[in-house]
């Protein structure tokens, strides 16, 4: 049972032998006279495994975080059914099954709930070294699995700590290191991966999230003086409109201000020749006509994005600092500050590109790339072969219905992730560097700062506002084989390992298409339409349980007039009873590269860029995108970070590590992101 605390209104949660649960008050609890040393040996065989796992992991309990009216795939009688959350009572959830209009109270820590079942399967497959076809696309967004401690909320903050690796493991499975996934985990169906962003009220600023460990302040920075636009006269714009300006921009954020940005409450840019531009389309046309070297992503039409806001720390608060962590290798300097203690980050060879190590055959010969012949900066997607590679890849995802103009970059920004990958223009293309399909291949232009956090080690914050969809940086490191990554991870640590699992994610999307909609025969539908308390006795299992309900205890009973009625309750299991079937409908693409091909790993432990310091969050403001730039080999995409929403100056940049909790036995990491939807555990 679960003891009473304030969160469950001081009731005990009792697990019955037949798979049912109930909250009971203290006065209704009775002591057990005698029990086995291992109490799970005293319960029903079908409940033994669940009780054993529960007591072994106690007080930590993985629970599915649910909300009223959410749709959750739920197991019943060996099948997955569509069920709706009708009510929530502490650790219990009341599920309504649409198929037979039946309701049932289920423990939120039961694998009968789809999100927790997926989590369990992923962790199990990782432990056994099996290359699991990720459920990352179908996995949590809402609902999700959180790892709770069975303690009072008032004391929860004091009890959260890192769990050290235990040596008391009976077996050492193949998987002994943790690796981040370079694919986003979300609970969206494939047909909702892409959508057109509708009109929004630009006078309303996006919701800002609570910033922790934030001792600095936002300052309005005065920029160096730049030439003012000329008075506008009717003309056809050409290169002479901007050729007279020889001003050198010291910082990228000054560029749009040269075009006299006005925002009350909408944004208008005025070019050097006096022409006004009110949309990104007009900006692109102007830059193309004037043959400007600027790209359209320098300009933004959201009034809440400020070009003069800069996050600053008081100098007296900084205990130690480094002027440029990249030592001149980045386009902009990356400052490192520490106001928590006097330590510096460990030395790491700073590299802006990935490097292939032993037994990793990365072919970047440009002759193996296809290129486009565009002369219009690839504005016409239908004529650009690189754009068509991205669009064709998206069409391979089953169930998608989208406009081709919504796929990929929108004015060199990425509003949402393209699961099937992005193919950028490359050295074989005839387009210019200001092409609309060239983003990730350029150096960092966002001003970043490395800083020491209180609980999460080193982290990254932005010093200026970042619009939604902006490119931030890539994740650079050393490319390793899976074997080398496992050996190095056990010896030197696995905190900077990231899987290049692009192939597995795409194949999983195809294999699991519409797997959330269970197919049942007419016989199954008719049998399941009955209420679970109204089945015929002959249809029950031999170990059925008879429940006697005394309707009137004040009356005497005899053989002729019974006041006790009997109704039957079919035993259920605490965990899902799904028979897994190994179905391999096609040969994996990775197998075509060789019999022993495995996922390659990006390791930024000893060498990497600023992306290695980006921390985890359960509600991240950055997402990961696979991009193909110098090779079209599906095994080696670039790992790029983009802003998933507007990020205000001073906020920490975070992404979801997508660890499979429990995948490394004896090792656990708790989450300190502090978000409302925090899962409380990373690994």
TrEMBL record:
Report which superkingdom the organism of origin falls in.
Eukaryota
| GO MF annotations in UniProt | DNA binding; histone H3K9 methyltransferase activity; zinc ion binding
Q: Which UniProt keywords apply?
A: Chromosome, Metal-binding, Methyltransferase, Nucleus, S-adenosyl-L-methionine, Transferase, Zinc
Composition bias, kind Polar residues: at what positions?
A: 168-185
Residue segments, region Disordered:
154-193, 513-534, 551-574
Pfam families in the cross-refs: MBD, Pre-SET, SET, Tudor_4
InterPro entries for this protein: DNA-bd_dom_sf (IPR016177), Methyl_CpG_DNA-bd (IPR001739), Post-SET_dom (IPR003616), Pre-SET_dom (IPR007728), SET_dom (IPR001214), SET_dom_sf (IPR046341), SETDB_methyltransferase (IPR051516), Tudor_4 (IPR041292)
Q: What sequence ranges are listed for the domain SET?
A: 446-658
- UniProt GO cellular component terms: chromosome; nucleus
Keyword S-adenosyl-L-methionine annotated: yes
Where in or outside the cell it occurs: the entry states: Chromosome; Nucleus
Report the residue ranges that make up the Post-SET domain in this protein. Answer: 667-683
Q: Name one GO biological process term.
A: methylation
**Biased segments, Acidic residues type:** 513-526
Record keyword Metal-binding present: yes
Residue span, Pre-SET domain: 370-443
| PANTHER family the UniProt entry points to | HISTONE-LYSINE N-METHYLTRANSFERASE EGGLESS
Q: What is this protein called?
A: Histone-lysine N-methyltransferase
Lineage start: Eukaryota, Metazoa, Ecdysozoa, Arthropoda, Hexapoda
């Amino acid at each position: 049972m679960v003891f009473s605390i304030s969160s469950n209104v001081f009731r005990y949660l009792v697990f019955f032998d037949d798979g049912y649960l109930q909250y009971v008050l203290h006065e209704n609890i009775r002591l057990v006279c005698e029990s086995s040393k291992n109490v799970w040996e005293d319960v029903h065989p079908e409940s033994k495994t669940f009780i054993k796992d529960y007591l072994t992991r106690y007080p930590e309990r993985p629970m599915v975080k649910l909300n009223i009216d959410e749709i959750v795939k739920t197991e019943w009688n060996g099948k997955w059914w569509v069920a709706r959350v009708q009510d929530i009572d502490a650790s219990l959830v009341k599920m309504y099954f649409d198929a037979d209009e039946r309701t049932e109270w289920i423990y939120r820590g039961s694998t009968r709930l789809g999100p927790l079942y997926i989590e369990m399967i992923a962790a199990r497959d990782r432990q056994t070294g099996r290359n699991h076809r990720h459920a990352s696309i179908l996995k949590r967004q809402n609902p999700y699995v959180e790892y709770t401690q069975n303690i009072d909320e008032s004391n929860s903050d004091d009890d959260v700590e890192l769990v050290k690796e235990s040596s008391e493991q009976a077996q050492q499975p193949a998987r002994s290191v943790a690796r981040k996934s370079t694919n986003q985990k979300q609970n969206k169906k494939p047909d909702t991966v892409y959508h057109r962003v509708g009109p929004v009220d630009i006078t309303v600023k996006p919701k800002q999230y609570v910033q922790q460990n934030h001792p600095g302040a936002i300052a309005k920075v005065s920029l160096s003086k730049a030439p003012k636009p000329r008075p506008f006269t009717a003309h056809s714009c050409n290169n002479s409109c901007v050729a007279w300006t020889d001003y050198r921009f010291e910082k990228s954020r000054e560029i749009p201000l040269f075009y006299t940005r006005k925002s009350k409450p909408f944004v208008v840019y005025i070019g050097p020749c006096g022409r006004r531009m009110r949309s990104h389309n007009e900006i692109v046309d102007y830059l193309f006509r004037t043959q400007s070297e600027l790209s359209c992503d320098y300009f933004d039409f959201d009034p809440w994005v400020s070009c003069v806001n800069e996050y600053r720390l008081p100098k007296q608060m900084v205990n130690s600092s480094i002027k440029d962590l990249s030592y001149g290798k980045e386009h902009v300097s990356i400052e490192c500050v520490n106001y928590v203690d006097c330590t510096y980050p460990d030395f790491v060879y700073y590299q802006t590109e990935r490097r292939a190590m032993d037994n990793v055959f990365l072919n970047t010969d440009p002759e193996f790339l296809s290129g486009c012949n565009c002369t219009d900066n690839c504005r016409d997607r239908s004529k650009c072969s690189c754009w068509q590679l991205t669009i064709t890849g998206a069409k391979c995802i089953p169930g998608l219905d989208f406009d081709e103009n919504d796929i990929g970059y929108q004015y060199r920004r990425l509003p949402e992730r393209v699961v099937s990958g992005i193919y950028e223009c490359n050295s074989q293309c005839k387009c210019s560097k200001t092409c609309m399909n060239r983003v990730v291949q350029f150096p960092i232009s966002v001003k970043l700062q490395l800083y020491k956090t209180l609980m999460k080690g080193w982290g990254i914050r932005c010093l200026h506002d970042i619009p939604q969809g902006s490119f931030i940086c890539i994740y650079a490191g050393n490319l390793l084989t899976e074997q080398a990554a496992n050996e190095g991870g056990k010896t030197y640590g696995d905190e900077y390992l990231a899987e290049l699992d692009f192939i597995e994610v795409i194949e999983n999307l195809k294999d699991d298409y519409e797997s959330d909609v269970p197919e049942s025969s007419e016989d199954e539908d008719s049998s399941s339409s009955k209420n679970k308390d109204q089945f015929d006795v002959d249809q029950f299992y031999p170990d059925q349980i008879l429940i006697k309900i005394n309707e009137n205890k004040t009356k005497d009973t005899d053989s002729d007039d019974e006041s006790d009625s009997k109704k039957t309750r079919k035993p259920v299991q605490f965990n899902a009873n799904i028979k897994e079937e190994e179905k391999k409908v096609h040969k994996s693409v990775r197998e075509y590269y060789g019999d022993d091909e495995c996922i390659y790993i990006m390791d930024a432990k000893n060498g990497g860029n600023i992306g290695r310091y980006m921390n985890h969050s359960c509600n991240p403001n950055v997402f990961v995108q696979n991009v193909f730039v110098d090779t079209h080999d599906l095994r080696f995409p670039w790992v790029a970070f983009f802003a998933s929403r507007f990020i205000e100056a001073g906020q920490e940049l975070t992404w979801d590590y997508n660890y499979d909790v429990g995948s490394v036995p004896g090792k656990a990491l708790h989450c300190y992101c502090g978000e409302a939807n925090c899962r409380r555990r990373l690994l």
